[in-house]
Amino acid sequence: MTEQHSLITALRELQARAESELGAITDLQQLEEWRIRYLGTKGALTMALKDLGTIPKEDRPAAGQTANTAKRTLEAAYDRHLAELRQAALATGLSAEAIDITLPGRRPQLGYSHPVRETLQDIIRIFGSMGFSVAEGPEVEWDRFNFELLNIPEDHPARDTMDTFYVDVPGGIVLRTHTSPVQARVMLSQRPPVRVIAPGRCFRRDQEDASHLSYFWQCEGLAVDRDVTFSDLKGVLASFADQILGCKVRFRPHHFQFTEPSAEFDFSCLVCGGKGCRTCKYEGWLEISGAGMVHPQVLRNMDYDPAVYSGFAFGMGPERITMMRYGISDIRLLNANDMRFLRQFA
Ligand SMILES: [Zn+2]
Predict the structure, then answer these.
(1) Ligand 1 centre from 286 Cα, in Å?
(2) In a domain, 168, yes or no
(3) Are residues 138 and 185 in the same domain?
(4) How many whole angstroms from 268 Cα to the centroid of ligand 1?
(5) Distance 237 CA to ligand 1 centre (A)
(6) Do 9 and 135 share a structural domain?
(7) Which of 201, 269, 278, 338 is most deeply packed, by most CB within 10 A?
């Protein structure tokens, strides 16, 4: 056999072997290895082409043609196989990530009011029907509004029960301990008649337990005009108790710095209807909050003449009323942000 023939035969065998190996290749990794083996710079076909230089000149055209045909054929086969493997990989990926559009969708969660917010809305509605409008003030308050204008000077023991978060700046800034500073703000900004409620959040340094939170809602009420009496206060609160929970109200003497006379008021127990049970500690009544006639000194602080004007003020805890409404035994549940608890009020 001449050198020409042996090279041509070798090239044809090489092409046949490469084609048969290619047919068995099923992944891209193997395909790349095949490409390097035959068509790479040190691949079998590339090396065979270099051998062309070693055969006699007259034999080169035929051998060169065979070599080029083999190269073109294998390159085309490689491109085809590569395209097939890519197509197969794509199809596998698509079926693995397929989205079943026949599945029912997930419903978005709908929000709804917190039970304390619901109670607040009812409080605002009921007092609104009695002519009270809503007033608001800042939660971060000057010491003067939170204490001094309400007749609670520095070092007064009444401050002990309202320890809060202080910012030590000239004039003193506190997180307000009650919504009463809103009363001061309203009275300083307008002349009588005044009839407002002030719902808002308050802060104290209280240890949290089943009936105390360190931040909580309060709703204050204030009415100042000529001839406002304690019986007006009783009438307003009795009507409120009846409308919000359908219960009765009673007053007990008490002391507050910014009212005189002062009282605490209770609602009749919803659980036992006033007969006495564990919830009300067999009293028949549950404490709600404080109230009283605005102290003459407070009126003077606001530049209202106590000889002409009188007024009453009261406060209440919307959380406490919410607990009575729904029979909730632990106030901390209201701030725990536990959806299992809150969904019950949806
Ligand atoms: Zn009871």
Answers:
(1) 8
(2) yes
(3) yes
(4) 8
(5) 20
(6) no
(7) 269
Whether residues 138 and 86 fall in one domain: no
Pair 159, 22 in one domain: no
Q: Which of 235, 177, 220, 174 is nearest to 318 (CA)?
A: 220
Query: Over the stretch 307-319, which tens digit does the pLDDT of each residue have?
Result: 999 999 999 989 9
**What is the 3-class SS of 212-237, one letter each residue?**
ECCEEEEEEEEEEECCCCHHHHHHHH
Ligand 1 centre from 279 Cα, in Å?
Answer: 5
- Taking the centre of ligand 1 as the mean of its atom positions, its distance from the CA of residue 273, in whole angstroms, is 6
The answer to whether residue 103 sits within a structural domain is no
Asked if the structure places residue 106 within a domain, the reply is no
CA of 285 to the centre of ligand 1 (A): 7
Last residue of a domain, one of 49, 64, 96: 96
Q: Is the pTM of this model over 0.85?
A: no
Q: Is the pLDDT of residue 1 over 70?
A: no
Distance from residue 321's CA to the centre of ligand 1 (Å)? 14
Instruction: Quote the ligand 1 centre to 165 CA distance (angstroms).
Output: 36
Ligand 1 centroid, distance to 342 Cα (angstroms): 25
Q: Using the mean position of ligand 1's atoms as its centre, give its distance from the Cα of residue 26 in Å.
A: 81
In the reported structure, the alpha carbon of residue 14 is separated from the centroid of ligand 1 by a whole-number distance in angstroms of 101
How many domains does the chain fold into?
2
Distance 278 CA to ligand 1 centre (A): 6
Domain presence at residue 104:
no
